[in-house]
Design the sequence.
């Protein structure tokens, strides 16, 4: 388990009791909430990596990872939404 896995588990623990609220939100609000959580996770990842290596790490790879993660959210949401609809039948 790496740093990102630790941050994902932490985010899941913090947000698990809020799931019912997020399900009822329109897609754009859910995406904005995901953007906020992903942004916080990326900043925490950068801080921990910088502390671990004892130097300020470049933010470019982290920014690319954040953009890819946030950009993949609508596609993953659509796929899982369709899968959920199929499984409910």
Sequence:
């Amino acid at each position: 388990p790496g740093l990102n896995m630790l941050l994902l588990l932490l985010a899941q623990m913090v947000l698990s009791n809020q799931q019912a609220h997020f399900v009822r939100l329109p897609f754009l609000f859910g995406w904005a909430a995901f953007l906020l959580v992903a942004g916080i996770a990326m900043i925490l990842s950068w801080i921990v990596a910088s502390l671990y290596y004892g130097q300020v790490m470049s933010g470019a790879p982290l920014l690319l990872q954040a953009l890819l993660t946030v950009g993949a959210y609508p596609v993953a949401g659509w796929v899982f939404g369709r899968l959920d609809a199929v499984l409910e039948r």
Observations:
- The mean pLDDT is 85.
